[in-house]
Amino acid sequence: MRAKREYRDRDSVEVSVLDALVDRSDEGMTVFEIRSHVEADIDDIEGALATLKDDDLIVVEDNGDRTVIKPDDSVVPDPGEPQDPEESIFDRVRDRLPF
Q1: Sequence-distant contacts of 43-49: CB under 8 A, at least 24 apart
Q2: Is the Cβ–Cβ distance between 55 and 37 less than 8 Å?
Q3: What pLDDT, in 10s, does the model give residues 3-13?
Q4: CATH code, domain carrying 17
Q5: Residue 90 pLDDT > 90, yes or no?
Q6: Which of 17, 32, 42, 95 has the fewest beta carbons closer than 10 A?
Q7: How many domains does the chain have?
Q8: 89 found inside a domain
Q9: Which of the pair, 85 or 78, is modelled with greater confidence?
Q10: Distances in whole angstroms, Cα of residue 93 to Cα of each of 4, 23, 31, 52, 71
Q11: Taking Cα atoms as reference points, which of 61, 62, 35 lies closest to residue 47?
Q12: Which of 25-45 are b and which e, b meaning 16 or more Cβ less than 10 Å from the residue's Cβ?
């Protein structure tokens, strides 16, 4: 799943981080998990996380033994909401394959 359309005009690393978090919105992700899903330098990922946090688009939860990052509810599309119509079938298949 991808972040809502209104959040797709951000920096490409920020969009990749949001997309990864939306895919696992219930359980969230650690920084290391995000790093494994986003093809970017760790410094770029950390910068994106800082910006997203400043803009209140992510929530950081400390569960005692690990810190988990989740997307804000406003970023997650509703279950019945159609995905981006400009997205091709190839884009949807590529997003689902683990690389």
Answers
A1: 44/13, 45/13, 45/17, 47/13, 48/11, 48/13, 48/14, 48/16, 48/17, 49/17
A2: no
A3: 888 888 899 99
A4: 1.10.10.10
A5: no
A6: 32
A7: 1
A8: no
A9: 78
A10: 18, 14, 25, 26, 22
A11: 35
A12: beebbebebbbebbebeeebb
Task: Tell me the three-class secondary structure of the chain, residue by residue.
Answer: CCCCHHHCCCCHHHHHHHHHHHHCCCCCECHHHHHHHCCCCHHHHHHHHHHHHHCCCEEEEECCCCEEEEECCCCCCCCCCCCCCCCCHHHHHHHHCCC
Q: Which two tokens stand for residue 82?
A: 């159609």
Q: How far, in Å, CA of 77 to CA of 34, rounded?
A: 19
- Of 90, 65, 81, nearest in space to 22 by CA: 81
Range of the domain at 24: 5-74
